[in-house]
Write a structure and sequence with these properties.
Length: 178
């Protein structure tokens, strides 16, 4: 099978490349998520402490979390954290069951986190209501595997489902590209 750009893709990629036909289920915050020290150091307000961290929804290339923090002045704030998949990349002889296992570690993971951060930063400057405010991207402290993260403003995307959300998306894209 080939992708739209006529590049041959594997079975694992084919499953990811297919257009979803099911209803999009809004993400929910569940379980607990362990936040790496490098993320804590990246909070924009020094002295911020974590109140709770929960798994939040899904990402094709990693894990996502809602991080609830207490600022030094006592206010509570929420952050969105996206982290490259923490599973080790499979050996070449191992069938790829999860494309995220391969694309989020090492140089590719670095490029993805940096690229998403820089993209959000530029879009946020033009249309701050359109995307979450990006705060930081970086690398986990553990040397192996090489894991990267993106830290941004938390927005409850559960409200962004349906026709109204699609129309708003089109309107916002139109305003950015005028």
């Amino acid at each position: 099978m080939e992708s739209i750009s006529n590049i041959g893709i594997s079975e694992a990629q084919q499953r990811v490349e297919q257009t979803p036909s099911d209803l999009i289920v809004p993400p929910t915050a569940t379980g607990t998520y362990q936040v790496d020290e490098s993320v804590i150091e990246a909070f924009p307000v020094k002295g911020t402490t974590i109140v709770d961290a929960l798994n939040y929804g899904e990402s094709l290339w990693g894990k996502t979390a809602k991080v609830i923090v207490r600022l030094p002045d006592g206010d509570v704030q929420n952050y969105f954290l996206k982290v490259g998949n923490t599973m080790a990349a499979p050996l070449a002889s191992t069938p790829v069951l999860n494309l995220a296992q391969v694309v989020t570690l090492g140089d590719t993971g670095r490029s993805m986190c940096e690229g998403e951060y820089e993209s959000l930063k530029e879009i946020y400057q033009v249309s701050p209501e359109f995307v979450p405010r990006p705060f930081a991207w970086g690398r986990y402290r553990e040397p192996q595997p090489e894991i990267y993260f993106l830290l941004a403003e938390f927005r409850d995307v559960g409200d962004q489902v349906g026709l109204i959300a699609v129309l708003r998306l089109c309107r916002e894209l139109n305003s950015i590209f005028r």
